[in-house]
Amino acid sequence: MKSKGIVFVAPGVSEIEELEVKSPEAGEVLVKLVRSTVSAGTERANLLGMPNTGASSVTHGYPIRIGYSGAGVVEAIGEGVERVKVGDRVLCVWGKHTQYRIYKEKNVYLLDDRIGFDEAALVHIATFPMAAIRKCRLEMGESAMVMGLGVLGLMAIQELRVAGALPIIAVDPVAEKRARALELGADYALDPFAPDFAETVKEITGGGAKVCIEVTGVGQGLDMALDAMARFGRIALLGCTRNSDFTIDYYRKVHFRGVTMVGAHTDARPRQESAPGWWTEADDERAVLEMLRYRRLDLRTLIEEVHPARDMVKIYNRLAVEKAFPVVQFDWTQMD
Q1: Mean pLDDT across the chain, nearest whole number?
Q2: In terms of DSSP bridges, do strands 328-331 and 144-147 run parallel, antiparallel, or are they unpaired?
Q3: Among 274, 128, 123, 283, which residue's Cα sits nearest to residue 213?
Q4: For helices 123-135 and 151-163, what crossing angle results, to 10°?
């Protein structure tokens, strides 16, 4: 069986390729993709060959195949697979932007009939800010701030509402992103480069934000967040850093004020068993699916553009240069 997908072949250069797909072996599931979501920050970094990506790895480099959150239909199963059967609608995690792909059984999750392929294709990405919020041990009624309003930041806004944060302050220098955050449930939206940014946060929150989900991955963003934190505040470092340019007065802004910073990369999770604040990936996947089933979250509202998968190269050409890239999905029913 042939499968078409996207591949990054050089900095800023993507192509559609066709590869042979084998039959699933024991414990494997073959899925025909219906929708997949572009995770703009990670995919742009890999496309452009930025530090701390596969492109910058001595052992990896180009070509790079990416795209880790999708949904589709089971085409075939290998020996011993019990959780899904042929024809089932499934969430697919840690896959690629490709028509057909083999997954380990643990990386596919059965979809309830009430969950569409479009919202399911956002679920895996939604577990990233969820884990960050858990690590901050947010309590109902605590103030929260989100630094950076890409897809992860916008998801964090929705999830903080579910978790009971109040007020929620969205922060980004791009006005369009701030407006979008307000539409999705933020109580305030601020420009971090405004001269009174930190003072405004402290005025809104009565002393500073208790929790911050830092999604920029930029040293200046973290420094600005620290200026706006409450004493004993907690910051989850969710955004992937692409350089080591972090000049921060840790004594005055962290040590003396008792601020906690915790790494929130999605791989920084327990593998086997969940604990308070530290859930496994599988438990978070199921939690987001349940939130969709009970309509506590509405991830569909995040989707801004849907494009035929055959137009992927055009979309990645845009991703390489657009500052305010939207939340984009590929429709794999329109590949050929």
Answers
A1: 94
A2: unpaired
A3: 128
A4: 60
